[in-house]
Amino acid sequence: MSSFSVRALLQATPYCANAGDASLDWLAQQAIQHHFAAGEILFLEGAPSAGLWMIEHGRVKAYKLSPDGQEYILRFFGPGETFNDLAALDGAPNAVSTVAIAELSAWVISCQAFSAALEIDHALALAVLRGLTGRVRHLVGQMEDLALRPVTARLARFLLEQANDPTLAHPAVTRALIANHLATTPESVSRSLRVLEDAGAIRFDRHLIVITRPDILRRQAQL
Hints:
This protein has helices at 3-12, 21-30, 85-90, 111-120, 122-148, 151-163, 175-181, 186-198, 214-220, and strands at residues 32-36, 41-43, 52-57, 60-65, 71-77, 82-83, 97-100, 104-109, 202-205, 208-211. By secondary structure, the protein is α+β, with helices and mostly antiparallel strands. It has 2 domains: 3-142, Jelly Rolls (Sandwich); 150-220, Orthogonal Bundle (Arc Repressor Mutant, subunit A).
């Protein structure tokens, strides 16, 4: 991919949509491309941060492991999204582990290059601040779900989020992965899907889940 194409990819991300031309040119020149097969680890929690990652195509899961090896998926990322933001900003070790769940092409901008762009481009810095605030709010919502809502409500909310975010409309995102994200089991996810189907909120089109009544789904999500 040429530097011009990388620049276009950067500009399409929420962080860089209003960044100045000089910042976009600088970041595009600094970006380094990486390719991963499905199942390949990008980086591990606690390892030194390579910088800010940006997905060209493919899917990634960010996860943490409990002391006994239980996986909890914090979030899925898809084309046009950035991740590893915190470690890219403070230069600390990676806060999570990540693995490709589908064939992946991603670009990395080093911590030093990212920091340099933020120092001179206030619009970019403000966009990053707003983006991080949104992600903190999302994590607070996840913690609320895990503590206060049953599995069916958590699943309903998860499906509503995906209605406006096509990241999970991909066969690589299995019920087992969704279960790890919702801190439950694949069997519980299957039971909750049947509950939502019986309520008329969703229907199945082969392996795809189609939302038929968003209003019912919102009630099931306890929103």
